[in-house]
Amino acid sequence: MEKIIISKLREFYILIGGLLLCFILLAIRIKMTGSFFFLFLVWNLFLAFIPYACSLLLVTKKQWMQSSWKWIPIAMIWLLFLPNTPYLISDLQHLQHSTPDVIWYDILMLTAFVWYALFIMYLTVSDMQNLLILKLRSRYILYVTIGIFILCGFGIYLGRFLRWNSWDIIQNPLGLTNDIWNQIRHPFINSKTWIVTFGYAAIMILSFFGLQFTHSKHKN
Fold first, then answer.
1. List of the chain residues with pLDDT < 70
2. Chain centroid, CA 73 distance in Å
3. Which terminus, N or C, of the chain has the lesser number of Cβ atoms within 10 Å?
4. Could you tell me the pTM of the whole model?
């Protein structure tokens, strides 16, 4: 437990540093332009932290993994909100609203937010991998992780293009289910759905396993 606490403290310092950088860049942008247009990034970062909070809870309460009624609901919430973390990649589309005099800065700022979100994703998925080892054989972890990223890619499509939110599974489950079924039932008509899904999934897979490889190499 002491090693976990030390590791999480290091993560915390890095996360705080990254968060300060993102907020400073956003504040400078607001000062430069007088526009609050990109203030939504703060909300998106908040949503990005929800899966991290869920996995952190399970890591610090590892004994809960012995009780299905404790860890499964938290894991479901984690999976439900996880697409919000890499969702920030899709916020790059807002560069179309940037004027020529500030687009260079907006690229810098949005890139910082995207990389920060991908780092949060790396941390929370790594934690969940370590927890799933307690429940699954290690050879299945890779396939489960890839499946999670594909689901995240699909979640990004639902959020960005169909404008669904994570809490709509409670507010409007029938409408959400109907939209999901329509995408699955007509895969060729909805080819854009799967291009977006697997495109974002590929970015997440490369980012995650790239960071994981770098981290393991550094440890060795």
1. 1-3, 217-220
2. 19
3. C
4. 0.92
